[in-house]
Amino acid sequence: MNLWYTEDHSPHARFSIRVEQHLYTGQSEFQKIDIFQTVEFGKVLTLDGYVMITEKDEFIYHDMITHVPMATNPGIKKVLVIGAGDGGTVRELTKYQSIEQIDMVEIDQMVVDLCREYIPQTASQLDDPRVNLFFEDGLKFVRKKENDYDLIIVDSTDPFGPGEGLFTREFYGNCFKALTEDGILVNQHESPFYTEDALGMQRAHQRILGFFPICKVYQAHIPTYPSGHWLFGFASKKYDPIADLDAVAWNELDLITKYYNTDIHVGSFALPNYVKEQLQDVE
């Protein structure tokens, strides 16, 4: 059997992975969920036909969305994670003994349940006693919070479907309010490469700029995401991700990471000219 999973990365470009077995397909209240077994990438989770994670490259995304803010402010105690139903971001956060509380808000419990069953590689730490799971709308959840979190990580799907509300000006304003006076917001910032993705990235960046005095963008190479060139947003009330990085302190923690290190931390903020131009267009 010659079975392939194919995703449109743009109206004129597609990405395909050979599939060994279609492990699961189903429809939740919010989206279509599929899990594939593949030779090249291990298990692959897709939502509404878009790759969310693969076992082979998920560590890149989860390392970079988690360890960059944690190395910038080692004093973070209380974290809110919005989205992240696969559990990979929580897995990385639980490596820090200094974190006292991790609240994870995921709108679709079915995603979490299926990842527990099929992809324990990412969901392995969801039962950590510091983790509180909330199955509700992240936009509504954060509205009720004020001066509550040291770090908010928005590990959302793309800016359409169930994740659409997590890219609005109202949402980022509520995140600002929910953060403590030295709080940090990190979000997945889309890709700058294909036109539609780049427009989504620019819109998100523009909306965040209106609230935070420090706004930076950093990057990583994630093979299964559109173009492989992926961006993250770093916004803070106080901390600069390069000037305030204490590389010595982070390295003394002896955490095991597969992608992140403090040299990558600094280098990831060095953006290509075409990305700088896109960001300047919205500033």
Q: What are its keywords?
A:
Rossmann fold, single chain, Spermidine Synthase, Chain: A, domain 2, 12 strands, seven-stranded mixed sheet, 30% helix, globular, 2 domains
SSE inventory with pairings:
Elements lengths: L2 E8 L2 E15 L4 E7 L3 E6 L2 E5 L3 H15 L5 E6 L4 H6 L7 E5 L3 H10 L1 H4 L7 E4 L3 H6 L5 E7 L13 H10 E10 L6 H15 L4 E8 L7 E8 L10 H5 L10 H6 L5 H8 L3
Parallel strand pairs: 6-7, 6-9, 7-8, 9-10
Antiparallel strand pairs: 1-2, 2-3, 3-4, 4-5, 10-12, 11-12
Describe it.
With 283 residues, the chain is of the alpha/beta class. The chain has two domains: 4-54, Spermidine synthase, tetramerisation domain (Spermidine Synthase, Chain: A, domain 2); 58-282, Rossmann fold (3-Layer(aba) Sandwich). The protein is 30% helix and 31% strand. It has helices at 58-72, 88-93, 109-118, 120-123, 138-143, 169-178, 195-209, 247-251, 262-267, 273-280; strands at residues 3-10, 13-27, 32-38, 42-47, 50-54, 78-83, 101-105, 131-134, 149-155, 179-188, 214-221, 229-236. The strands form two sheets. It has a seven-stranded mixed sheet with strand order 8-7-6-9-10-12-11, with helices on both faces. A five-stranded antiparallel sheet has the order 1-2-3-4-5, covered by helices on one side. Strand 11 (214-221) and strand 12 (229-236) form a beta hairpin. The longest helix is centred in the first third of the chain and has 15 residues, at 58-72. The radius of gyration is 18 Å and the shape is globular. The termini are far apart.
